[in-house]
Give the backbone structure.
Amino acid sequence: MLWDIEALKKKAQEEINSAQDLAGVDAMRIKYLGRKGIIAEIFSKLPELSAEEKSQTGKFANELKFFLTELINNKVQQLKTIDHRPKTVDLDITLPGIKPEIGTRHPITQVLEEICAIFTQMGFKIFDSPEIETEFNNFTALNIPLEHPSRDAFDTFYIRRQKLLLRSHTSPGQIRVMKKYKPPLAVVVPGKVYRPDAVDASHSFMFHQVEGFLVDERVRFSDLKGVLTNFSQELFGSDIKMRFRPHFFPFTEPSAEVDISCVMCEGKGCSVCGKKGWLEILGAGMIHPNVFKAVGYPKNKYTGFAFGMGVERIAMLKYGIDDIRLFFENDLRFLRQF
Ligand code: DAH
């Protein structure tokens, strides 16, 4: 026999078994089973052999070919399923963990909740009202007719060819509650409102308001004064004084703008109050009969008061913040102080 097939088998077996990776096994496949490999070479030399040698060698070479093919395939499988993860892990379980960062509640959220809590204590219920409103709820039902010049004062973002809008105040919350429930009612409606205002130190296209109203038989203006005085003193301290200035709102009659004595100078006059000693904090009044009519309440049966305040403005006064943009810039150096 020209080739020692047994020795060849042994050598091939050793080489294949000691292959470290798939590339190594592949090199063995080429070396032994490839087109120009050792087995192919044996077959190519068969015609040179005698008849007897030919059949012997051919048989052995074929057996070797099947044997090596199987061996190589098994080795490939074995390498593919090998766990390549490091056997030991460099982990110190006694090290302190990474502390999760704990945020603070946004100052507007805090003030909003504080305002709502004061009214809740006085027996008011909180009502959530949608930010997308109808023209009817935002204007018409609040006695602001379509072509009335007072609508100019409530510049508004309209949606889908003016059928819907982003509420420009929380007052439509009054309409939604009154359409659904009968008096007696004492409700606050907190939430976001939107106006197409250019952003500056005191304006934002989105801000927060708290609307409040109380409806029953024989509710008087003095009830409004009592509720708002208690509210201001709870929020700003018992030394705070209030004053009501006559004003115009379409949905209340009479209407007033309500001032508190300046929280900075206690009424002496400073840059925050513009030397006036007073700060405007909300609008209020007795609910207009046309509003009761719009929600379907019987004529002359009920009276009520309503008020609306801007939360950013109150937060600015409470904390001495001079720029509304600070609330919305997400600067953690500012927000972490609350
Ligand atoms: N809706 C008014 C505004 O956004 C605020 C307001 C004034 C609400 C008087 C009231 C009210 O309920 O009685 O400017």
In short: The pocket of 3,4-dihydroxyphenylalanine is lined by residues 169, 171, 211, 249, 252, 283-285, 306-308 (CB under 6 Å). The longest helix spans residues 51-81.
